[in-house]
Amino acid sequence: MNAIKFQELTVPLRLQGLIQAIRVAESPDQAEGLEVKVCPGGYAGLVWAQTRDGLAPIESIQVEGRSIQPIPRFFLHGLITRPSIMKFSRNAYLSIQMLFKADAIRLIGQDPNLGNFKFISADQLGFDSLDERLLHEPLIEGKTDFLSRLIADLLDKSPVVPDKTITACVEYINSHFSTVSTAGLCDRFAISERNLERRFRASVGISAKLFVRIIRAQAAMALIRQGHYEHLSDVAMALNYYDQSHFIRELRHFSFLSPKGVNDSTLEHHQDINGFSYL
Protein backbone atom coordinates (compact mmCIF):
# COMPACT_ATOMS: atom_id res chain seq x y z
CA MET A 1 0.00 0.00 0.00
CA ASN A 2 1.68 3.19 -1.18
CA ALA A 3 -0.35 5.33 1.23
CA ILE A 4 1.33 3.68 4.24
CA LYS A 5 5.05 3.03 4.73
CA PHE A 6 5.89 -0.11 6.73
CA GLN A 7 9.13 -1.21 8.34
CA GLU A 8 10.00 -4.13 10.60
CA LEU A 9 12.30 -3.67 13.58
CA THR A 10 14.44 -6.21 15.40
CA VAL A 11 12.79 -7.85 18.40
CA PRO A 12 14.92 -7.45 21.56
CA LEU A 13 16.65 -10.70 22.52
CA ARG A 14 14.86 -10.71 25.87
CA LEU A 15 11.46 -10.84 24.13
CA GLN A 16 12.14 -13.14 21.18
CA GLY A 17 10.30 -16.01 22.85
CA LEU A 18 7.25 -13.79 23.29
CA ILE A 19 7.09 -11.38 20.36
CA GLN A 20 7.02 -12.50 16.73
CA ALA A 21 7.65 -9.10 15.15
CA ILE A 22 7.67 -5.35 15.73
CA ARG A 23 6.18 -3.33 12.91
CA VAL A 24 6.16 0.43 12.40
CA ALA A 25 3.73 2.13 10.03
CA GLU A 26 3.81 5.77 8.94
CA SER A 27 1.31 7.62 6.80
CA PRO A 28 1.40 11.25 5.60
CA ASP A 29 -1.62 13.53 5.50
CA GLN A 30 -4.28 12.14 3.16
CA ALA A 31 -6.90 13.89 1.05
CA GLU A 32 -9.44 11.70 2.83
CA GLY A 33 -9.29 9.13 5.58
CA LEU A 34 -8.12 5.64 4.61
CA GLU A 35 -10.26 2.53 5.06
CA VAL A 36 -7.90 -0.43 5.48
CA LYS A 37 -9.28 -3.97 5.30
CA VAL A 38 -7.28 -6.15 7.67
CA CYS A 39 -7.33 -9.95 7.46
CA PRO A 40 -6.63 -12.04 10.59
CA GLY A 41 -3.03 -13.22 10.72
CA GLY A 42 -2.90 -15.51 13.75
CA TYR A 43 -1.42 -13.08 16.28
CA ALA A 44 -2.45 -11.07 19.31
CA GLY A 45 -0.93 -7.64 19.43
CA LEU A 46 -0.04 -4.43 21.20
CA VAL A 47 -0.72 -1.21 19.28
CA TRP A 48 0.29 2.37 19.93
CA ALA A 49 -0.73 4.90 17.27
CA GLN A 50 -0.80 8.68 17.29
CA THR A 51 -1.14 11.60 14.90
CA ARG A 52 1.34 14.46 15.07
CA ASP A 53 -1.37 16.39 16.95
CA GLY A 54 -1.38 13.75 19.66
CA LEU A 55 -4.72 12.20 18.68
CA ALA A 56 -5.71 8.59 18.00
CA PRO A 57 -5.57 8.08 14.20
CA ILE A 58 -7.95 5.09 14.11
CA GLU A 59 -11.48 6.48 14.22
CA SER A 60 -13.35 3.18 14.23
CA ILE A 61 -13.01 -0.54 13.57
CA GLN A 62 -15.81 -2.45 11.88
CA VAL A 63 -15.85 -6.18 12.56
CA GLU A 64 -18.61 -8.80 12.44
CA GLY A 65 -21.27 -6.21 11.64
CA ARG A 66 -20.49 -3.88 14.54
CA SER A 67 -18.56 -0.62 14.76
CA ILE A 68 -16.10 -0.17 17.62
CA GLN A 69 -15.33 3.40 18.63
CA PRO A 70 -13.63 5.40 19.96
CA ILE A 71 -10.30 3.64 19.51
CA PRO A 72 -7.62 4.52 22.10
CA ARG A 73 -4.07 5.44 21.13
CA PHE A 74 -2.75 2.38 22.98
CA PHE A 75 -4.39 -1.01 23.35
CA LEU A 76 -3.64 -4.71 23.69
CA HIS A 77 -5.87 -7.07 21.71
CA GLY A 78 -6.29 -10.82 21.53
CA LEU A 79 -5.97 -13.01 18.46
CA ILE A 80 -8.23 -11.68 15.67
CA THR A 81 -10.36 -14.25 13.85
CA ARG A 82 -12.40 -12.18 11.38
CA PRO A 83 -11.52 -9.52 8.81
CA SER A 84 -12.08 -5.91 9.83
CA ILE A 85 -12.22 -2.43 8.34
CA MET A 86 -10.07 0.17 10.09
CA LYS A 87 -11.11 3.74 9.40
CA PHE A 88 -8.28 6.26 9.78
CA SER A 89 -8.41 10.03 10.03
CA ARG A 90 -6.86 12.19 7.29
CA ASN A 91 -3.99 13.25 9.55
CA ALA A 92 -0.44 11.93 9.29
CA TYR A 93 0.29 9.30 11.92
CA LEU A 94 2.86 6.90 13.33
CA SER A 95 1.96 3.48 14.73
CA ILE A 96 3.99 0.80 16.49
CA GLN A 97 2.64 -2.74 16.60
CA MET A 98 4.11 -5.62 18.57
CA LEU A 99 2.86 -9.00 17.40
CA PHE A 100 2.77 -11.66 20.09
CA LYS A 101 3.35 -15.29 19.25
CA ALA A 102 0.02 -17.10 19.20
CA ASP A 103 0.33 -18.63 22.66
CA ALA A 104 2.28 -15.79 24.29
CA ILE A 105 -0.26 -13.25 25.53
CA ARG A 106 -1.08 -15.35 28.59
CA LEU A 107 2.62 -15.31 29.54
CA ILE A 108 2.30 -11.62 30.46
CA GLY A 109 -0.67 -12.41 32.68
CA GLN A 110 -3.45 -11.64 30.19
CA ASP A 111 -6.45 -13.78 29.22
CA PRO A 112 -6.04 -14.90 25.58
CA ASN A 113 -9.83 -15.23 25.22
CA LEU A 114 -10.26 -11.55 24.37
CA GLY A 115 -12.14 -12.11 21.12
CA ASN A 116 -12.20 -9.76 18.17
CA PHE A 117 -10.97 -6.31 19.18
CA LYS A 118 -11.78 -6.40 22.87
CA PHE A 119 -9.13 -4.04 24.18
CA ILE A 120 -6.99 -3.95 27.29
CA SER A 121 -5.97 -0.37 28.03
CA ALA A 122 -2.66 1.02 29.28
CA ASP A 123 -4.24 1.73 32.68
CA GLN A 124 -5.43 -1.88 32.98
CA LEU A 125 -1.89 -3.05 32.33
CA GLY A 126 -0.48 -0.65 34.90
CA PHE A 127 1.33 1.49 32.34
CA ASP A 128 1.11 4.88 34.04
CA SER A 129 1.90 8.00 31.95
CA LEU A 130 2.49 5.86 28.85
CA ASP A 131 1.07 8.37 26.36
CA GLU A 132 3.07 11.23 27.82
CA ARG A 133 6.32 9.24 27.73
CA LEU A 134 5.81 8.14 24.13
CA LEU A 135 4.72 11.59 22.97
CA HIS A 136 7.91 13.21 24.27
CA GLU A 137 10.26 10.47 23.01
CA PRO A 138 11.41 11.78 19.57
CA LEU A 139 12.92 8.59 18.12
CA ILE A 140 11.00 5.51 16.94
CA GLU A 141 13.71 3.31 18.45
CA GLY A 142 13.24 5.07 21.79
CA LYS A 143 9.48 4.49 21.69
CA THR A 144 9.85 0.79 20.85
CA ASP A 145 12.53 0.36 23.52
CA PHE A 146 10.19 1.90 26.11
CA LEU A 147 7.31 -0.40 25.08
CA SER A 148 9.65 -3.41 25.08
CA ARG A 149 10.76 -2.66 28.64
CA LEU A 150 7.14 -2.43 29.77
CA ILE A 151 6.34 -5.83 28.22
CA ALA A 152 9.49 -7.37 29.70
CA ASP A 153 8.40 -6.09 33.11
CA LEU A 154 4.98 -7.75 32.71
CA LEU A 155 6.71 -10.98 31.69
CA ASP A 156 8.97 -10.88 34.75
CA LYS A 157 6.00 -10.34 37.08
CA SER A 158 3.79 -13.06 35.60
CA PRO A 159 3.82 -16.50 37.27
CA VAL A 160 2.41 -18.17 34.12
CA VAL A 161 4.63 -20.71 32.36
CA PRO A 162 4.19 -21.79 28.72
CA ASP A 163 2.41 -25.00 27.81
CA LYS A 164 5.30 -26.56 25.87
CA THR A 165 3.05 -29.01 24.04
CA ILE A 166 0.83 -26.19 22.72
CA THR A 167 3.87 -24.09 21.82
CA ALA A 168 5.13 -27.06 19.77
CA CYS A 169 1.68 -27.47 18.18
CA VAL A 170 1.65 -23.81 17.10
CA GLU A 171 5.12 -24.11 15.60
CA TYR A 172 4.12 -27.29 13.77
CA ILE A 173 0.97 -25.66 12.37
CA ASN A 174 2.95 -22.67 11.12
CA SER A 175 5.35 -24.91 9.22
CA HIS A 176 2.88 -27.59 8.02
CA PHE A 177 -0.27 -25.52 7.34
CA SER A 178 -1.03 -27.25 4.03
CA THR A 179 -1.40 -30.73 5.52
CA VAL A 180 -1.93 -30.37 9.27
CA SER A 181 -5.15 -31.50 10.94
CA THR A 182 -6.29 -31.69 14.54
CA ALA A 183 -6.23 -35.49 14.32
CA GLY A 184 -2.66 -35.30 13.05
CA LEU A 185 -1.68 -33.01 15.91
CA CYS A 186 -3.17 -35.45 18.42
CA ASP A 187 -1.18 -38.32 16.94
CA ARG A 188 2.06 -36.37 16.70
CA PHE A 189 1.97 -34.98 20.23
CA ALA A 190 0.27 -37.96 21.91
CA ILE A 191 -2.68 -35.95 23.19
CA SER A 192 -6.42 -36.58 23.05
CA GLU A 193 -8.54 -34.29 20.87
CA ARG A 194 -10.49 -33.08 23.90
CA ASN A 195 -7.30 -32.29 25.80
CA LEU A 196 -5.80 -30.56 22.76
CA GLU A 197 -8.81 -28.29 22.32
CA ARG A 198 -8.96 -27.43 26.02
CA ARG A 199 -5.28 -26.60 26.30
CA PHE A 200 -5.10 -24.84 22.92
CA ARG A 201 -8.00 -22.54 23.85
CA ALA A 202 -6.42 -21.85 27.24
CA SER A 203 -3.10 -20.83 25.64
CA VAL A 204 -4.15 -19.29 22.32
CA GLY A 205 -7.76 -18.24 22.89
CA ILE A 206 -9.30 -20.13 19.95
CA SER A 207 -9.55 -23.74 18.81
CA ALA A 208 -6.70 -25.47 17.02
CA LYS A 209 -8.98 -26.03 14.01
CA LEU A 210 -9.76 -22.32 13.66
CA PHE A 211 -6.10 -21.40 14.06
CA VAL A 212 -5.19 -23.78 11.21
CA ARG A 213 -7.87 -22.21 9.00
CA ILE A 214 -6.49 -18.69 9.62
CA ILE A 215 -2.89 -19.68 8.90
CA ARG A 216 -3.90 -21.61 5.77
CA ALA A 217 -5.95 -18.67 4.43
CA GLN A 218 -3.00 -16.32 4.93
CA ALA A 219 -0.76 -18.77 3.08
CA ALA A 220 -3.30 -18.95 0.25
CA MET A 221 -3.34 -15.17 -0.18
CA ALA A 222 0.46 -15.08 -0.21
CA LEU A 223 0.67 -17.83 -2.84
CA ILE A 224 -1.94 -16.13 -5.01
CA ARG A 225 -0.09 -12.81 -4.97
CA GLN A 226 3.29 -14.48 -5.65
CA GLY A 227 1.90 -15.82 -8.91
CA HIS A 228 3.86 -19.08 -8.91
CA TYR A 229 0.79 -21.14 -9.84
CA GLU A 230 -0.78 -20.97 -13.28
CA HIS A 231 -4.34 -21.46 -12.02
CA LEU A 232 -6.02 -20.41 -8.78
CA SER A 233 -7.34 -23.95 -8.46
CA ASP A 234 -3.70 -25.09 -8.20
CA VAL A 235 -3.33 -23.00 -5.03
CA ALA A 236 -6.41 -24.69 -3.58
CA MET A 237 -4.92 -28.11 -4.34
CA ALA A 238 -1.49 -27.19 -2.95
CA LEU A 239 -3.08 -26.20 0.36
CA ASN A 240 -5.43 -29.20 0.46
CA TYR A 241 -8.74 -27.37 0.37
CA TYR A 242 -11.54 -29.84 -0.28
CA ASP A 243 -12.54 -28.23 -3.56
CA GLN A 244 -12.77 -24.85 -5.29
CA SER A 245 -16.00 -23.93 -3.49
CA HIS A 246 -14.40 -24.60 -0.12
CA PHE A 247 -11.40 -22.49 -1.15
CA ILE A 248 -13.61 -19.55 -2.16
CA ARG A 249 -15.70 -19.73 1.04
CA GLU A 250 -12.63 -19.76 3.27
CA LEU A 251 -10.98 -16.77 1.59
CA ARG A 252 -14.20 -14.76 1.69
CA HIS A 253 -14.61 -15.64 5.37
CA PHE A 254 -11.16 -14.36 6.29
CA SER A 255 -10.64 -11.53 3.78
CA PHE A 256 -14.00 -10.42 2.25
CA LEU A 257 -12.38 -11.36 -1.10
CA SER A 258 -12.66 -14.27 -3.53
CA PRO A 259 -9.42 -15.81 -4.86
CA LYS A 260 -9.90 -13.72 -8.03
CA GLY A 261 -10.27 -10.63 -5.89
CA VAL A 262 -7.01 -11.39 -4.05
CA ASN A 263 -5.33 -11.88 -7.44
CA ASP A 264 -6.58 -8.57 -8.87
CA SER A 265 -3.52 -6.73 -10.20
CA THR A 266 -5.06 -3.36 -9.25
CA LEU A 267 -5.52 -4.33 -5.59
CA GLU A 268 -3.45 -2.00 -3.42
CA HIS A 269 -2.31 -4.33 -0.66
CA HIS A 270 0.38 -5.12 1.88
CA GLN A 271 1.43 -8.51 3.23
CA ASP A 272 3.98 -9.31 5.86
CA ILE A 273 4.21 -11.48 8.95
CA ASN A 274 1.16 -9.71 10.39
CA GLY A 275 -0.94 -10.92 7.48
CA PHE A 276 -2.75 -9.46 4.47
CA SER A 277 -4.33 -5.99 4.31
CA TYR A 278 -5.59 -3.85 1.47
CA LEU A 279 -7.43 -0.65 0.56
**In which range does the helix fraction lie?**
25-40%
In sequence order, what are the helices and strands, one letter per element? Answer: EEEEEEEEEHHHHHHHHHHEE
Count of alpha/pi helices: 10
- Which structural category do the helix and sheet elements fall into? alpha+beta
Mean pLDDT across the residues is 92
Please state roughly what percent of the residues sit in beta strands, choosing from under 5%, 5-15%, 15-25%, 25-35%, 35-45% or over 45%: 15-25%
Total strands: 11
Spatial order of strands in the largest sheet: 6-5-8-3-11-10
For the largest beta-sheet, the strand count, sense and barrel status come to:
6 strands, antiparallel
Unreliable parts: none
The N- to C-terminal Cα distance equals 7 Å
Q: What is the rounded Rg?
A: 19 Å
Gross morphology is globular
General description of the model:
The protein is of the alpha+beta class and 279 residues long. Helix content is 37%, strand content 22%. The protein is built from ten helices and eleven strands. The chain has helices spanning 122-125, 130-136, 140-157, 164-175, 182-188, 193-204, 208-226, 232-238, 244-255, 259-263; strands at 5-9, 19-27, 35-38, 44-51, 58-63, 66-68, 74-77, 84-88, 93-100, 269-272, 275-278. The strands form two sheets. Strands 6-5-8-3-11-10 form a six-stranded antiparallel sheet, with helices on one face. A hairpin with a 2-residue loop joins strand 10 (269-272) and strand 11. It is globular. The N and C termini lie close together (7 Å). The model has no long low-confidence stretch (mean pLDDT 92).
